[in-house]
Design a protein that fits this description.
7 helices; about 0% strand; mainly alpha
Length: about 200
């Protein structure tokens, strides 16, 4: 059944002694399981509270542009809250693991990712929410642009998840983040262009 499949994902696989030839394969499998485990837990919670139905109703395009912009904004703020929680949890974990509870967050490799996720969201917030609310005020935030707005929110959520799962390289160059940043910036550019067309 579906529940049994989720149980297999959530449970930790048993440890075993590995040969050098299978070590790389085992590491890859464990990384995949570590990524799927939180998604499986989230799916179980969503099914338990009938989340798919109200989530669909919440994100379904609205004929009222102000209501649609309000929902997109709320979704974005939830993603930002998730980034803040990730940042706080990481900091508390590092403080607990550091002697005397002191560490330099600016030189800590583990804090680079959560700090960057929060900072990145803050940097682009005006350029996202600005066009969303200008279009709503101009009655130009139709269903196509609502989907673009939700696309950006989804891309930001994937970005936070990738940063939490993989971390961020010190030089900032990490190809795995492109799957979130490229679609996100495309949605952002589309909203900015649409806003300029609407007010011209």
């Amino acid at each position: 059944s579906v529940s049994f499949f989720f149980f297999l994902l959530v449970r930790r696989p048993p440890r075993s002694t590995l040969s050098s030839s299978s070590a790389a394969s085992d590491v890859y499998k464990r990384q995949v399981m570590e990524l799927l485990r939180p998604l499986a837990l989230l799916a179980l919670v969503m099914c338990a509270f009938d989340t798919p139905m109200w989530l669909w109703q919440w994100t379904y395009p609205s004929k009222d542009p102000v209501m649609a912009a309000s929902r997109v904004t709320a979704g974005f703020l939830l993603v930002y809250l998730a980034a803040i929680v990730t940042q706080i949890v990481t900091k508390k974990r590092l403080l607990a693991a550091t002697p005397e509870g002191k560490f330099d967050r600016y030189s800590s490799a583990a804090m680079i990712g959560p700090d960057r996720a929060v900072g990145n969201l803050l940097e682009w917030t005006p350029l996202f929410l600005g066009p969303v609310w200008v279009l709503a005020h101009m009655q130009a935030f139709g269903w196509r642009w609502q989907l673009v707005g939700w696309g950006y929110v989804a891309a930001r959520a994937v970005y936070v998840w990738l940063v939490a799962a993989h971390g961020v390289a010190a030089d900032g160059k990490q190809k795995s983040l492109y799957m979130a940043t490229v679609p996100g910036y495309a949605c952002l550019l589309a909203l900015l262009v649409r806003m300029m067309v609407s007010i011209s």
